[in-house]
Amino acid sequence: MKDRQLIKISITIVILFTLCLFPSLYNQASAKSPVPKITKHSYKGISSLKYPQVSGINKKTASKINSTLKKAAEKSHKSYLQLKKAEKAVSKKELCKKTPKCSYSYNTLFQVKYNANGKLSLYYSDYAYTGGKSGKTHVTMYNFDLVTGKHYKIKDILKTSCTYKKVQKYAFAYLSTHKPYSDTVLKISDVTVNKNTQFSFYKGGIYLVYQEYGTQYDDGTPFIKIPKSVYQ
Asked: Which InterPro entries does UniProt cross-reference here (predicted)?
């Protein structure tokens, strides 16, 4: 009985001793992978202008992330006001008195693409309709470190010109051999990978994210998977 008690006491002492010697390691492990709650908000009460905010993580980190996302909503709001101003001007034209196509609209939406391992990737899109068959969508990816609040750009992931070229080559190999991209991706220069390229995290690497319009890709918003082994 005494032996068992001595063993329990010894184990407790070892654990306490370890935590005292390596408190930083313990704290890092505890805060290694915070997972935030993502909530939807309407900017200035405008139902068509949705933007995300995070909570449930370190307050300073959440504030840093939310500030960046709020600025995105502010920028969208400016575009929204410009569109409404243009709509008001065009509605006075004779043609617009006879057709509903002169009714403009502006919408924003977001999706959580990755929320694990201390990283968060948010898909944020601005959609503007000014008549015609369809509107125009512009996608911005927001990638964050959930411990520090750092806003990642692709240059933080691809740190040398060599890695950009490796990723471009890998993306070209995929796009040039898969429909519908292979119809228009005929040479490596058809695939753009630079400091302005949008991306999203995933467990094994990143996705390159291309715009729906303004590129040769017409199949929505392409997400091209790039494993870490390609650029690390």
From this structure: PdaC (IPR025303)
User: Residue 72's domain is classified under what CATH number?
Assistant: 3.30.565.40
Tell me which of 144 and 215 has the higher pLDDT: 144
Per the domain annotation, does 38 fall within a domain? yes
Whether 11 is in a domain gets the answer: no
Put the strands of the sheet holding 105-116 in their side by side order.
105-116, 119-129, 136-145, 151-152
Show the CA angle centred on residue 21, arms to residues 19 and 24, nearest 5°. Answer: 70
Q: What are the distances in angstroms from CA 25 to CA 32, 42, 174? A: 10, 40, 41
Q: If we measure between CA atoms, which residue out of 119, 98, 139, 224 comes closest to residue 173?
A: 224
Tokens 């694990």 belong to residue? 116
- pTM: predicted TM-score of the whole model, two decimal places: 0.81
131-175: pLDDT as tens digits: 878 889 999 999 999 999 999 999 999 999 999 999 999 999 999
